[in-house]
Amino acid sequence: MRSGGFPVLLLCFAAVLLAAVLVSALANRTILSTAALFLVAGFALGEGTTGVLHLRADSPIVAQLAELALFAVLFTDGMRVGWADLRSAWRLPGRALGWGLPLTLLVTAVLAHYVAGLGWAEALLIGAILAPTDPVFAAALVGNDKVPARLRHLLNVESGVNDGLALPFVVVLLAVAAGSDDLHLGELATELAVGLAIGVLVPLAAIALERTRFFAASAAYAPLNGVAIGLLVLALGKATHGNLFLAAFAAGITVATFGPRERAAFAHFGENVAELLKLAALLVFGALISPGFLGEIPWTGWLFAVLAIVVARPVALWLSFLRSGLGLREQAAAMWFGPKGFASVVYGLLVLEAGIGAADEVFHLVALTIVISILAHSSTDVVVARAFDETAETPNWHGVLRRARRRTALPGPRAGRRVAPVEPTADGGAADDQARAK
Fold first, then answer.
1. Backbone angles phi and psi of 378, in degrees to 5
2. pLDDT at 434 over 50
3. Which residues are registered as beta bridge partners of 424?
4. pLDDT of 65-89, one tens digit each?
5. What is the dihedral of CA 133, 139, 145, 148, to 10 degrees?
6. pLDDT tier at 433 (50, 70, 90 boundaries)?
7. Distance between CA atoms of 12 and 425, rounded to whole angstroms?
């Protein structure tokens, strides 16, 4: 990033954030998306478009901000579920992770090889990069109480765990694509184990300290307890080279399981912090995309990006949920909502840093797929969420019309029958309507 560039970046972020706040109410009930707004704003302000922001893919702030945003998102995602929730409702997420993740990787790799023309090593690598999902861009679906709880739980748990599960594949396949004979499997296992240990032990220690008679958080500082835990996990993960993303999700789950008070205090504040980091990362990522960048991608690359979204995950989850008992509508929503987000951005930047032969081509395909995914998924989450709203499916006039028809069918006083008083019901009908319908 050029000298003096950070103040300009901060100014642009503040201006776009204000615009997003002003249209957020409209975005909650329409296909307008604040995530897409920041992505498009970054595209418009980027060096290859208007030149307001001078950012490159190898700029340190790009990788650091994407990594920090992904950490915050995974930490807050973990906060939403405790160990009891995972254990009691693991059946569907287990199918999505155990079968859906590797199948998505393989289907994407096949498309990358035969459609985009990549070699098998690079095709498998891009499959691993694009396999993780991110429900942040389907917030209206995951956060809507009218959507079945098991579907929301499925998407939330799957997205939180698959980022860390995909990382070993990315690291190993990066070594394969670089032609390395040493895949460093021992180092990889150590990295995962250290990340998991930090994510569990740090929150446990912090919660235990607060439970003693010597320490207590005031009401004003209670929300910062979660921030302190998250920052400590992040710092230790950096210092020990543990897996940051697994540590983040494990820490969130640990707090949710053993510190319900800390979880409640952090919930709203933490989600706002994660949202700010996510939007900032989207602005920066959008600034990397330009008309020239998109013009470098051949038509086969565009075809691959579309197929990676509309074919790879739907086919993988369709096979994964056979005989699962998941309803057709829920299954269709899960198959569609596999948005690509920060994990894929971070892993794509890892490819650039690794300097493999096809690094530039792989990053172009990854970036294009992420852009299309964000625009498509964040613009359709409200529409799909409304499909689960049973009250929205029944027009307001339906109960009135049905009641009028029933009344005309009732015998009058001359028939010697007394008509019971009509009591309205929740669906706009009447209690006697229900009795007669039986």
1. -75, -15
2. no
3. 430
4. 888 888 887 888 778 776 766 666 6
5. -30
6. very low
7. 52
- pTM here? 0.75
Is 159 in a helix, a strand, or coil? helix
Nearest Cα to 11, choosing from 136, 71, 19? 19
Please tell me the distance from the alpha carbon of residue 283 to that of residue 44, in angstroms, as a whole number: 10
What is the per-residue pLDDT across 200-221, written as a single tens digit (0 to 9) for each? 999 999 999 988 878 888 888 8
Structure tokens given for 228:
């302190």
CB 91 within 8 A of CB 151: no
In angstroms, the CA 424 to CA 422 distance is 7
435 conformational bin, left if phi > 0, alpha if psi -120 to 50, beta if neither: alpha
Residue in the block written with tokens 């983040």? 248
DSSP of 51-73, one letter per residue? -SS---TT-HHHHHHHHHHHHHH
DSSP-assigned beta bridge partners for residue 430: 424
Nearest Cα residue to 251 out of 237, 265, 238, 240: 237
Residue 255 DSSP class? H
- What is the sign, positive or negative, of the torsion defined by CA atoms of 216, 78, 85, 385? positive
Percent of the chain residues topping a pLDDT of 90: 25
Q: Cα(299)–Cα(289) distance, rounded to whole angstroms?
A: 17
Q: Which residues contact 153 (CB under 8 A, 6 or more apart)?
A: 81, 85, 89, 92, 93
| Average pLDDT of span 297-302 | 95
Write the CB contacts of 414 (distance below 8 Å, at least 6 apart in sequence).
none
Residue type for position 127? G
Rounded Cα distance between 286 and 43, Å, is 5
Residue 218: count of CB within 10 angstroms of its CB: 7
User: CB neighbours of 60 closer than 8 A, spacing ≥ 6?
Assistant: 1
Contact 286, 49 (CB under 8 A): no
Helix boundaries (H) for 259-395: 260-288, 291-295, 299-307, 313-320, 328-336, 342-354, 359-378, 381-386, 390-393
Residue 350 CA to residue 126 CA, distance in Å, equals: 12
Please choose, from the candidates 374, 355, 345, 344, the residue with its C-alpha nearest in 3D space to the C-alpha of residue 128. 344
The Cα–Cα gap between 43 and 37 comes to 10
Which pLDDT value is given to residue 400?
A: 53
